Amino acid sequence: MAATPLARFPSLRFSQSDAASSRRRLRIPVSACSSPSRPNRVPLGELRLDPKVDAVLDSVKWDDKGLAVAIAQNVDTGAILMQGFANREALATTISSRKATFYSRSRSSLWTKGETSMNFINVHDIFLDCDRDSIIYLGKPDGPTCHTGSETCYYSSVNDLLEDLQTSKDRLATTTLYSLETTISRRKDEIDTTQNGKPSWTKRLLLNKELLSSKVREEAGELVQTLQENEDKSRVASEMADLLYHAMVLLEVKDVKIEEVLEVLRERFSQSGVEEKNSRMRHSNPSS
């Protein structure tokens, strides 16, 4: 069963009028309420929740300590950033503040990721699993998530540990696309090192912009050809893989991360076509 999204629906958010009403009733100064650096910490019982939010909180299968596993995931890369625990108040605070908030079992209190480091996780959506006993905060991190400075808290590969390889904070649990990006970046770093033998194809592309440009054009043409000649799915996938690889080498040359490309796509497809077109025109004509 698919996970259930929560936060994308306006009805599951605290309204501005509810927040203002709570401040007036509780005499809470504005500075004490939700802000980029100070998430809302009004006690749950004192917040006037949207009835639908209350119903969702009731639907979660909290354990005997009132907790559920809460996982933070990067909305663009899909990387698992960290895992903690949330209680009813932490989830309600996350829905309200849009900052990933957890419950600290050691301190017996709420904590918002980034409240000390300022590396907040800005939540775009929230999902519950099919059993309603675990939570995903789908968001965009402001910086490294792990206290070690690593992008995520997951960089210890069991395969590496079994082979007695040293753990590195750069060895992240990445999908195929990001593993490829890491490999291309490593080849770029190796260019200045003295090596015998013929350079790899990736290094040749990195060193020769004309060669790289011609290959991107060639692979794009071959992908289009699969459509024109009605070639089968496996051929389309193969040509798309070729184009994607060469395009990612170009991104490396231009120092652009694939995450930046995906962020642009997310922002574009969250807008209507007219809004997206107007946004492009504003960026291309900043003086207008």
Structural class: alpha+beta
CATH topology of the largest domain: Ubiquitin-like (UB roll)
Q: What do we call the CATH homologous superfamily of the largest domain?
A: Phosphoribosyl-AMP cyclohydrolase
> Strand order of the main beta sheet, please?
1-6-7-2-3
Pathway: Amino-acid biosynthesis; L-histidine biosynthesis; L-histidine from 5-phospho-alpha-D-ribose 1-diphosphate: step 3/9; Amino-acid biosynthesis; L-histidine biosynthesis; L-histidine from 5-phospho-alpha-D-ribose 1-diphosphate: step 2/9
Keywords: Amino-acid biosynthesis, ATP-binding, Histidine biosynthesis, Hydrolase, Multifunctional enzyme, Nucleotide-binding
InterPro entries: His_synth_HisIE, HisE, PRib-ATP_PPHydrolase-like, PRib_AMP_CycHydrolase_dom, PRib_AMP_CycHydrolase_sf
Domain Phosphoribosyl-AMP cyclohydrolase: 82-155
List the topology elements.
Elements: E1 4-5, H1 16-26, H2 51-59, E2 68-74, E3 80-86, H3 88-97, E4 101-104, E5 109-112, E6 121-128, E7 134-141, H4 158-162, H5 176-190, H6 201-207, H7 209-228, H8 233-253, H9 258-269, H10 273-284
Parallel strand pairs: 2-7
Antiparallel strand pairs: 1-6, 2-3, 4-5, 6-7
Helix pairs in contact: 5-8, 7-8
Note down, in words, how this protein is organized.
The protein is an alpha+beta fold. It has 2 domains: 4-47 and 56-141, Ubiquitin-like (UB roll) (Roll); 176-256, Helix Hairpins (Orthogonal Bundle). Helices cover 42% and strands 14% of the residues. It is built from 10 helices and 7 strands. The strands form 2 sheets. It has a 5-stranded mixed beta sheet, covered by helices on one side. The chain has a two-stranded antiparallel ribbon with strand order 4-5. α5 crosses α8 and α7 runs antiparallel to α8 (233-253). The longest helix has 21 residues, at 233-253. The chain is globular and about 60 Å long. Mean pLDDT is 82; it is low at 7-38.
